[in-house]
Each structure stands twice: as C-alpha cells, then as structure tokens.
Amino acid sequence: MSTDTQPLDKPVPVSGLSIYDPVHLGIDERGYGVDIELIYRNILLGGEPGSGKSVALNNIVAHAAMCTDTRLWLFDGKQVELGLWKSVSDVFVGPDIDAGLQRLQELQRVMDWRYDELDRVRRRKVTQTDPVDVIVAVIDEIAYYSATIGSKEQQEKFVRLVRDLVARGRAAGVIVVAATQRPSADIIPTSLRDLFGFRCAFRCTTEASSDIILGHGWAKQGQSATHIAPEDRGIGLLLAEGGMPRRMKSAYLSDADIYALVDYAHQLRTTIAY
Ligand SMILES: Nc1ncnc2c1ncn2[C@@H]1O[C@H](COP(=O)(O)OP(=O)(O)O)[C@@H](O)[C@H]1O
Ligand SMILES: [Mg+2]
C-alpha cells in the first residue's frame, strides 16, 4: 500500500462497470428499469426514421464506454449518430464500405483467434475473469452498408460478415448491436434476425416490418410496433429470447450528457488501473 498521502491533482476515475453487468436501456410501462444482460447476446433495433434507434444505441455505447473490460468498434454511416464517442472507440468507420469490410474482416479474425485460444485451453467461452476485453461492435443503419453504398458484391460480403459475427461472436466476447430503419426481409432475413437474442421494434409503419424485427406472428397477437404513436419517439417493444415483448421507453442522453461521459470514459481508458 502506498504511504504517499499527497492529494492527487485530479480525481481518479473509478468505474465499477463491466460489460458483464446489465445494461440500462430505459423504463417500462410500470416505471421499472429495463436492464438487459447483453453479454453472450446480440441486439437488433429497428423502426422508421426518427423512431428512436440511435438514441437507444447511445445508451448501450455509453455503458460499454464506461467499462474497463470493453472495446468499442463503431460503424456509423451517418457519422454523427455515434460520432461523439469516436475518441473512446478503438475503431470508428464512417460512410466507407471498404473500411467497413476491412474492419469486419479484422473482427472476424480476432474472433477466430479467440476461438483457437479457447480450443487450446479447452474452454467454451470467455468469462469476466479472463484478461480478454469484450468487443462491442455497433452498426447504426445496417442497410447503409448492406444496400446503399458500394457494389452488390461488397454489400453481400458486408451482410455475410455481420451474420458470421452475430452467429459465432458471443462466446468469443464479441457482441453485435445493430440498427436498421428499413426492416424488410432483404435487409434482415429471418435467419439473421433469429440470431439476435434481443430485438427491439420502435415505431413501424407496417405490421410486416414490426414482425420482421420481433419475429413472425407477434403482430397477430397484438404485439405490433405500428401501435406506437408517431410522436412517441423512443418507445419500443423489446423482446428477449423466449419472452413476451415489453413496451419500454429508452433513456435519453443529451449531447451534454455524452460529452461528460466521453470525458470520463477517456480518463478511465488512459488511467492506470489500480
Ligand atoms: N427516448 C427518447 N426520449 C426523448 N426523445 C427521444 C427518445 N428517443 C428519440 N427521441 C427523439 O427523437 C429523435 C430521433 O431519434 P433517433 O434515435 O435519432 O431516431 P432514429 O435513429 O430511429 O432515426 C431524437 O433526436 C430525439 O429528439
Ligand atoms: Mg438513427
């Protein structure tokens, strides 16, 4: 223990947050907190433009940024939705399909190395006590990379890589968080949708779109994101594996909140751990 009693010239950030802790998303209709265990899972958020996807994503990014056991890989076709977090991310990809593909391939390689290592030590997944950081890959507007920019081959390759990461990343400590404003079967095929353990449908214009996010049949059972009023931004139906959709409102971080969090996260990432 140090005998040095000199006061420190600046506060030492203490986080206490881990990506293995539940991530706060917002509150439900009864006012209870909605906290999800994202570790070993992935989350898909869908809904019409302006329905609240990026706001919700920012809550997840904020949690990840506050964790000392997590690295952020951000893919943001619009640049500004996640841009405030750039300085605390390991990777930031803007509207550039080549960079997007290169980074996803790198992430795939990291995942493969981790599986080789798990195999070597006869383990099935990374755990909190392993000296391995969890990588949270956040893709805001998947369709931007998979259907808007680049050639058809590049777009298909992007989807293939995302699918592989979603399918295999979990045990290797790779979490995919993806948003789409075009919930259509060509952007999110059922086989890809079903790989996401958490799905959140913000307001949708058709029951078909709502079902594409949540899963087939929910609209018929009355669980449709078309029932969310256009002015109810930030309200969504959150479905966790095997459960019922839960109506919730996501927490909102203002730009000022995010500046403060980024500052803090920055210190956290540059201070020697005690
Ligand atoms: N949970 C929320 N609380 C308050 N306002 C919200 C919330 N979610 C969204 N909004 C408002 O709606 C706007 C659009 O949300 P955004 O997340 O950018 O939509 P999307 O990414 O789905 O296009 C935000 O700029 C904000 O003004
Ligand atoms: Mg958005």
From TrEMBL:
Q: Which InterPro entries match?
A: FtsK/SpoIIIE/SftA, FtsK_dom, P-loop_NTPase
A single GO molecular function term of this UniProt record: ATP binding
Its keywords, alphabetically, are: ATP-binding, Cell cycle, Cell division, Nucleotide-binding
Q: Which residues form a coiled coil?
A: none
Chain ranges of the FtsK domain = 20-211
Residues binding ATP are 47-54
What is one Gene Ontology biological process annotated in the Swiss-Prot or TrEMBL record? cell division
Q: What is this protein called?
A: Cell division protein FtsK
Q: Native species of this protein?
A: Allosaccharopolyspora coralli
The taxonomy runs:
Bacteria, Bacillati, Actinomycetota, Actinomycetes, Pseudonocardiales
